[in-house]
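User: quick one, fold this
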Amino acid sequence: MEFVIGLLSGVVFFILLGVVFINGYKMGIKRKPDPIAKPTDEEIRRNESLQKSFEKLMNYDVTTAYKRKKV
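Assistant:
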């Protein structure tokens, strides 16, 4: 009798665990993604200036880099 009770309790436990996971999966699917905010003019201007400064920094002449610096 104890064997049957243990077996049934294990089966019930795993069934409940499966139900919890299935409900969590369904709730995750139904959840709407967060709306993506459009960038403001300030952000666009800042990104453009950052891109220009990055290109200026990465685009250098090797001969100029090897020249002696005037102190």
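User: anything notable?
Assistant: The chain has one domain: 2-66.
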